[in-house]
Amino acid sequence: MNRELYPFPGGLQIPPHKELSNAKTSLITPLPDSIILPLQQHIGTPAVPLVKTGDKVLKGQIIARADGYVSVPVHASTSGKIIDIGNYTVPDPLGLKAPCIVIEPDGDDVWFEIKPTHDYASIDPKDLQDVIREAGIVGLGGAGFPAHVKLREGTESAVDTLIINAVECEPFISCDDRLIREKPGYIVNGTRMIRHAIQAKYCVIALEADMPEAYAALKELIDDDIDLIQLPVKYPQGGERQLIKVLTGMEVPSGGLPIHMGIVMHNAATAAAAYRAVIRGEPLISRYVTVSGEVNDPRNLQVLLGTPVKHCADQCGYEDKEGQAIILGGPMMGMYVNNMHMPVIKTTNCVLVTSTYNKSPEMPCIRCGQCVDVCPEKLLPQQLFWHAHAKNYDRLREYHLFDCIECGCCSFVCPSNIRLVQYYRKAKRQITQDEQTRSGADHARERFIARNARLAREEQTQNNELLAGSDIGELDKQAFIQAAVERTRAKRAQLGKQENSDDDQE
Amino acid sequence: MTGILIVLAFTVVIAVLLYYSRGEVPEQEKLVDIIDSLLPQTQCGQCGYPGCKPYADAIVHNHADINQCPPGGRNTIRQLADLLGGEIKPLNPAHGKAGPKRVAFIDEDICIGCVKCIKACPVDAIVGAPEQMHTVITLECTGCELCVAPCPVDCISMLVFVQGGRRVKLGPAMRTSS
Hints:
The structure holds two protein chains of two kinds. By secondary structure, chain A is an alpha/beta fold. Chain A folds into three domains: 18-315, Rossmann fold (3-Layer(aba) Sandwich); 361-471, Fumarate Reductase Iron-sulfur Protein, Chain B, domain 2 (Orthogonal Bundle); 473-506. Chain A has helices spanning 125-134, 147-156, 175-182, 184-198, 212-221, 240-248, 268-279, 309-315, 370-374, 381-389, 393-398, 409-413, 420-471, 474-505, and strands spanning 27-28, 35-38, 48-49, 56-57, 62-65, 74-75, 80-89, 97-105, 161-165, 202-208, 227-231, 263-267, 286-293, 299-304, 325-328, 335-337, 350-354. Chain A is globular. The model of chain A has no long low-confidence stretch (mean pLDDT 89). Chain B has two domains: 2-95, 3-methyladenine DNA Glycosylase II, Chain A, domain 3, CATH 1.10.15; 102-160, 2-Layer Sandwich (Alpha-Beta Plaits). Helix content of chain B is 35%, strand content 8%. Mean pLDDT of chain B is 82; it is low at 164-178.
């Protein structure tokens, strides 16, 4: 297929290291001793538990419901008993604990009653979204944005192009590659299903040139309805904005969304999971995970969500050695974690064990400008660094900190070993937190002012009543009291009568 | 010589004019609002003034110090110092200690429904009626602790506030990656 490509600015050529893990067939990971399912595995509001400790659950049963629109439910990955609902270590850059549901598998792996739909084309696109939402589908590329939200955006406005992102640009990660090679039908049919759901005019599946087998597998299944495009290898081509630029030549404006330009993008694994959810009725309870780097047998695994990372690493011959770092995700954007107790969640695509990470101390910035050349968002990383260092949050906004996609290119090329992205992440977190505090404070101020106004009003009314009272002349007052006394007497008399008649009856 | 004197006289006149045009009333009122917007709006009165706005007013008009707001802590002091061009100083311990945000919690088994706390709450965050059980609307509570002292049965405690979710969304970028 000849299609004009528009290279995105910046970016890097990094050794891909995919050959470590992409040649071997994926292994189905055996059941672990415990399954730990965090209530939040997606962007949005955490799910709300529907089970309690001691309950028996079946595989695929909803154990926590979605809370609000930007939220998805959590399903039991296997059958077993709920042994705890509490705080456990989760994949988190700060190593924090978060609410999780823990299941002790009974080993039977019995499915909950599932409802397959054999013909997606007969379903109204709106109902299709609900099915996908109930199946707990989120973007499996890494961010974990609930898939139904993007689908709804798609049905509400006209969609020109649906892009299925199979560009696995981060080094070491090959889980999408493996998934496409092993289950190309899911990807292609999933793509067609999403296209039906959002009624897109054109449809593209994009992957990089270093995935020839995946390309061939897809090529065999697609007709003219889908464009299959191979792109030259360049990092971070798989970023949403970068891929849109490459394929269409258009840039998503700062603060804008692809849907504003008639584009919807889904990750290939998400399309596959959505298809599976609709056709087979199976919710999202497992995913492909790459275990790579310094393990004896690097490969891809099919892992039940909630399986401890350690259990996955053990399947690939992991040995704990001095000086090794464990990264969840790729070497460029992944998060460094201290231990392997946390579970695999919906967004965990890779477990990387490495000892060649950047250990050198940070040196001062020499303003060489290499970071500027590689930034795919055309930002000024060194300026952002200065202002982040000085906690100058207003200037950070002016320099479009929130357009940073945290791809890590700037940190990668920095000759002074400055972990630039870490500063940006911290600053983003701080700014978001400050904003929340600020809006809380504004709300409190409004309530304080409203209360003071109410108190003033009440005082005013009371004063008015007193004033009104003083206007009554002495005579009138006497009459007023007299009238009140009369009324009371009359009432008493009536009550007395009633009591008498009651007595008579007895 | 006369030349120098004329120049000097001009300088003095301009300096005096500048000095007096500096502190005009509307400017000061604007400043009060800006300072008020930096304060945490707890309305706790720990600063010694009956609310955040009065404290902002006192900073502008009565030279109140900028380190009297425990709920705001270091962050607020830093922002005030940036705004007013002063130095960052530690919180004045006479006004209290900084700490994590707390919210009031009413033990509903003990509450006798006296409405005293409701009257004390500066942001109407307590619901209830005479001789009915009261409760705090957690999301509206600013943690000012003004309801704690009036309670005759000591049923109000201050608990550390844990926001429903623990994680904050980092930004709109990168919804999809490879």
